[in-house]
Design goal:
This protein is an alpha/beta fold. It contains 19 helices and 15 strands. The longest helix has 26 residues. The protein binds beta-D-galactopyranose. The site of beta-D-galactopyranose (GAL) has 12 residues, from loops.
């Protein structure tokens, strides 16, 4: 009898110990569209299976501007969430405030340094320590097209150059359909703008003008041509686009109301959630002129310093889960992105994802891999906000000449 009671006591202690280390993890994110919500639900499932309580802190608003505002107010009031969707240079800014938890113990135990491309690992570290866990790799320079709309309009091949694109857009317009589905929000305007700059000027020009913010590049004939092209794209959008959410623009393409959308591959998450098949219902293609380039956007979660041991354990489990193979597969299948973890089995992923994975590696070797400015991967948030506003003013006001627009953008880029 004694033996059994000892065993029972030992089991009880282990369970109690494990239970005591379970904690609540409040996660601030902005994934509220159909595809996004399905994706983040997978992370919630994995954390609940580990015995933790998931407190979902979703802040609507694509691109994350609203979420960033709410996060600042929570941290300033001394009540940060356990984790928040923070990425790119903003990770460095938050880390310099001394509020982010050090994730090195988890990163070491899980061997992150051997599982991440160096360019990614460096973005997740502050002064050599991991302070964020990377979730995925989104490609931003995509053009989505509805196959049936192209057929109806007599567009027989996917445009590869901007001249071919405008010829196709003209045919779609003549067929009485909307050539370009767009949501008039500054991060969406800039998502289109950066693909135009990449397509017109190439990766080196993109880096000089939009990443290095070089004044000569920003006021060059290539930038002039980019702005002329950008304005011509605007002429093929519909009057109801101002303020439209990105996923509602994607829905216009899904529902055969519009032909094209320039958007990152989180848009593919919407096609997937709608049961659409790439190569049959829709086409994923590099934005015109960008097939040798790749604008990357890496989502990541930073953890805030918390005192409670249970919360700290939950944070460590969250970080480990995010980089785990199970989450990396199921999340990215739903989200439209590709795994950030190297050597993942891609057999369940569709051809768009396989193309993205191949191009991510090849463009890293050729210099065609560039950070997305529109999605917070390239420059300090203040300068990013200023040039986004200048670009949106140009997009929204046809009375602003190309010369004036170019001068405004160059001036905004000088914002410190
Ligand atoms: C991006 C984010 C993506 C997607 C998109 C639309 O900034 O990295 O994951 O959410 O915004 O909201």
């Amino acid at each position: 009898m004694l033996k059994i009671s000892k065993l029972a006591t030992a089991v009880a202690l282990v369970l109690a110990g494990t239970a005591a280390l379970a904690g609540e993890v409040e996660v601030l994110h902005y994934w509220t569209s159909g595809g996004e919500a399905k994706s983040v639900a997978e992370l919630k499932k994995i954390m609940q299976a580990k015995g933790h309580t998931w407190k979902d802190f979703a802040v609507a608003g694509g691109g994350g501007d609203n979420a960033a505002t709410v996060l600042k107010s929570r941290v300033v009031s001394g009540n940060p969430p356990a984790a928040a969707q923070i990425k790119g240079p903003a990770i460095q800014e938050w880390a310099s405030e001394g509020v982010l938890a050090n994730l090195d113990a988890t990163a070491k135990a899980e061997k992150w340094d051997s599982l991440l491309p160096e360019v990614v690992a460096n973005v997740m570290k502050y002064k050599g320590n991991y302070v964020a866990a990377p979730v995925n790799v989104h490609r931003v320079n995509w053009m989505w097209a509805n196959a049936a709309v192209l057929k109806k309009a007599g567009v027989t091949s996917t445009p590869k150059t901007w001249d071919e694109f405008f010829a196709a857009a003209e045919k779609v317009k003549k067929a009485g359909l909307i050539p370009v589905a767009h949501g008039g929000q500054n991060w969406q305007d800039f998502t289109t703008f950066e693909s135009v700059v990449l397509g017109v000027g190439g990766a080196k020009f993109y880096s000089d003008a939009l990443v290095k913010l070089d004044q000569k590049a920003l006021t060059s004939p290539t930038m002039q041509k980019s702005l002329e092209t950008f304005r011509k794209v605007k002429s093929y959008t519909d009057p109801a686009s101002p303020g439209r959410d990105w996923n509602l623009a994607t829905a216009m393409v899904i529902q055969e109301k519009a032909a094209f959308q320039f958007m990152g591959d989180w848009a593919k998450g919407e096609f997937t959630a709608a049961g659409k098949v790439p190569g049959k219902d829709y086409v994923c293609a590099p934005a015109p002129g960008t097939d040798k380039a790749y604008t990357f956007n890496i989502d990541s979660f930073a953890m805030f310093k918390l005192k409670d041991p249970g919360a700290q354990k939950a944070q460590a489990d969250l970080a480990a889960s995010i980089m785990g193979t199970e989450f990396q597969e199921v999340f990215n299948l739903n989200k439209g992105s590709i795994p950030v973890r190297l050597n993942m089995d891609m057999s369940k992923f569709d051809d768009c994802a396989k193309t993205s994975a191949k191009d991510f590696v090849s463009t890293a070797k050729t210099g065609g891999l560039v950070p997305s400015v529109a999605h917070g991967m390239a420059i300090a948030p203040a300068a990013e906000g200023a040039i986004k506003d200048a670009v949106s003013q140009f997009w929204n006001d046809d009375k602003i000449t190309v010369a004036a627009g170019m001068a405004n953008i160059a001036k905004a880029a000088a914002t410190k």
